[in-house]
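From: lab user (bench 3)
To: helpdesk
Subject: output format question, protein + magnesium ion

Hello, I'm new to running complex predictions and I'm not sure whether the block I got back is the full result or only part of it. Here's what I submitted:
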Amino acid sequence: MIRKLSDQYRHEDSDLAPYATHNMATLGRRHPEEPHPFRTDFQRDRDRILHSRSFRRLEYKTQVFLNGTGDHLRTRLTHTIEVAAISRTLARALYLNEDLSETIALAHDLGHTPFGHSGERALNKIMEAHGGFDHNLQALRIVDLLEQKYPEFNGLNLTWEVRTGLIKHRNASTKLDEKKLPLHASLESQVADIADDLTYYGHDIDDGLDAGLITEEMLDEIEIWRIAVSKAKERGAKGGKERMMSFTIRCLIDMMVGNVIIHSDNLLVKNKIASPSDAQDCKTRLVSFEPGFEKMTLKLRDFLYHNVYFSKNVTNVNDEAVEKMKSLFSTYIKTPSLMGRFAKTRIEKDGLHRATADYIAGMTDRFAHLEYARCCR
Ligand code: MG
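Helpdesk reply: Thanks, we reran it on our side. This is the complete output you should expect:
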């Protein structure tokens, strides 16, 4: 027996809620392509992202802790895989399009610079007079322009739904291809977005403990953590400290996922959402934590900002790396011939600064260090 594309479409109405993005309703690609016999457009987009060079480079990019500083710490790649898995759980539970949520999740961090958030902030500052730098927009630039896989066009030629799904921060005048976008991204994109948050809340506690930046006693100050501890105990968790901590993090993630599913479903009913456009035009964001619960997650986020992301141990190391990135930028501006072959071909079209920012943003931590050693000493 073979499951053909038409068989997948046949079950779509019963598999998906009316407000989900249906595969059959895709607005398609910029460069039209023949349908694939076995895969839907969103499945194809997922595979295009998985097979892209920028996806593979996520393995050597810093998530929080400088890449290579610990074998168990998350990188951008392992973070992305965790976000994709949680996105699938959320999308499936809410009868949304799992493939679309997963695809957006897999692409969501493609635009990140080397050296984590410090790297992004530095590049944004350097690019201030040249249009700035934002990792979400950069992800779109990568899939639309910078990946080189196809003979007839630049980029990966992804569907409209995946491309718009990467534009998270919107206002009334946000556009793509001259088309005005609705206030909110699709529900599938909202799923990937909240999955990103709750994934890093969970894994950065894990990594923060592993790196010795936070302790169990410090976490005891955080209400949502105390609830997770009591859930872990209710489920009979005992044993060594490490095992107890891991199980508590598991309970925390489970609580957050459950809260999003139940609250989002309530909001969909309450706002009488009957179509994807109802969801995107709704005043409120529909995939979200229950407000009281969200307050607790924000306290946890503040805690992580203070004690992990902007702790001296993390920022000192990252800042040192960022200084190298800045020197590299000015070296390329002075001597563009030092840049890679493809980056140089973009200078005429995009200007020297944008081509340099694209080149540097695409680098892994490792390559940026090597380039610094080659060009700046
Ligand atoms: Mg992320």
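A quick orientation on your result: Residues 54 and 110 are 6 Å apart (CA to CA). Let us know if anything else is unclear.
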